[in-house]
Specification:
It is built from nine helices and 15 strands. With 348 residues, the protein is of the alpha/beta class. The structure holds NADP nicotinamide-adenine-dinucleotide phosphate (NAP).
């Protein structure tokens, strides 16, 4: 049945080392639709994810270990929401909606155990790439396991309207914290306050961050959830309370760099402040917390259903625009969690 189809794959033609990716770095290639063998499932992509780690994996110094580098000429890796087209695994049938790391392509063949079933009744299925998926779990686990927020704490979160930040900010609010975020531009900042319920959101493009954080956090910061790095990180550090916690989740400000930037003085100042303020610095990697998926989806899915949790999605149409969508996410002209729609959504 699939012989009438071709498989479009979005590939990387050139590594964007030390710079923002450009449209000409990406190239669509086409090939045959793969055939599933015993135990395998053929999946047709509906939504592709666009996440910061995809950019990081294009750089030599940020990939390796558990994060393989994107290979030139191969489909760019990432999670998809897909429909099962043909299944040789008894646990899945044609028409099932699943999440799987199939990459930026129309079709992929995966072993059944690499599929995560998606519940369309919880929220639009695309949300399983964002607030109900990997980014959301990162925010949920990073905040609750690594920081244990208490009512009355001040929580500061960068990229507050994105996949991770949307969950951090609202879980912190639901736990009774004062929440201050950052985002770029007045529209996102307004959304963060009026829809996500943050106490304040600072436009990161306006500069003078440290003084503005101090004004927005008059009692200092108890928990900084770091998604950005750069000026935002230093502003948070300046305003940390003694014994506060910094959850280091991501450093998107550095993902277009070509390696660690020289900075002995900066690293010494960082360590000095950690010591002076007796800070707890906790790293978070989402793959350590997959056991929390059921609890996380029940909590966030429940809050979405009862209307107490909001989220925005930035839907870009067409696989040919996936590279453009990545560039928009990296420069902040997206609004909400970025996904690329590549086929009709059967749940709509
Ligand atoms: N540790 C883990 O396991 C894990 C898992 C998932 C994600 N992460 C990290 O978490 C962070 C957020 O990821 P996400 O998926 O939720 O992405 P996202 O927020 O949906 O998209 C990235 C956002 O980062 C902001 N940004 C871009 N350049 C920036 C800069 N130079 N300085 C400050 N902000 C900048 C932009 O928002 P504004 O323009 O509105 O500020 C952009 O929309 C990333 O650093 C990512 O690498 C870590």
């Amino acid at each position: 049945m699939t012989s009438n189809y071709t498989n479009r794959q979005m590939t990387l033609r050139e590594y964007p080392e030390g710079r923002m990716p450009e449209a000409s770095d990406f190239e669509i290639i086409t090939g045959p639709v793969p055939e599933p063998k015993e135990g395998e499932v053929l999946c047709k992509s509906i939504y592709l994810t666009v996440d910061p780690y995809i950019r990081a994996r294009m750089s030599a110094h940020l990939s390796g270990g558990y994060a393989d580098r994107v290979q030139l000429g191969q489909p760019i890796g990432g999670e998809n929401i897909a429909e099962v087209v043909e299944s040789n695994d008894p646990n899945f049938s044609a028409g099932d909606i699943v999440a799987t790391f199939g990459g930026w392509q129309d079709f992929c063949v995966m072993p059944g155990e690499a599929l995560r079933r998606v519940d369309p009744s919880l929220a639009p299925i695309s949300a399983h790439l964002g607030v109900l998926g990997m980014p959301g779990l990162t925010g949920y686990a990073g905040l609750t396991v690594k920081a244990d927020p208490q009512p009355g704490n001040t929580v500061f979160v960068s990229a507050a309207t994105g996949g991770v930040g949307t969950v951090v900010g609202q879980v912190a609010r639901i736990k009774g914290c004062r929440v201050v975020g950052t985002a770029s531009g007045p529209d996102k900042c307004r959304f963060a306050v009026e829809e996500l319920g943050l106490d304040a959101c600072l436009d990161r493009l306006e500069g003078n961050m440290s003084a503005r954080v101090a004004e927005a956090c008059p009692n200092g910061i108890d928990i900084n959830f770091e998604n950005a790095g750069g000026e935002i990180f230093w502003a948070a550090l300046d305003n940390m309370n003694q014994d506060g916690t910094m959850v280091i989740c991501g450093l998107i400000d550095s993902y277009n760099d070509d390696g660690p930037q020289a900075g002995k003085d900066a690293s010494m100042e960082l360590l000095r402040q950690i010591a002076l303020k007796r800070l707890n610095v906790r790293g978070v990697i989402v793959s350590d917390h997959l056991d929390l998926y059921p609890q996380f989806q029940a909590d966030v899915g429940g809050w979405i259903k009862d209307g107490s949790f909001k989220h925005a999605e930035y839907v870009v149409e067409g696989i040919e625009n996936a590279g453009k969508a990545l560039i928009e996410m990296m420069n902040g002209t997206n609004f909400g969690k970025t996904v690329v729609k590549v086929a009709d959504d059967p749940s709509q």
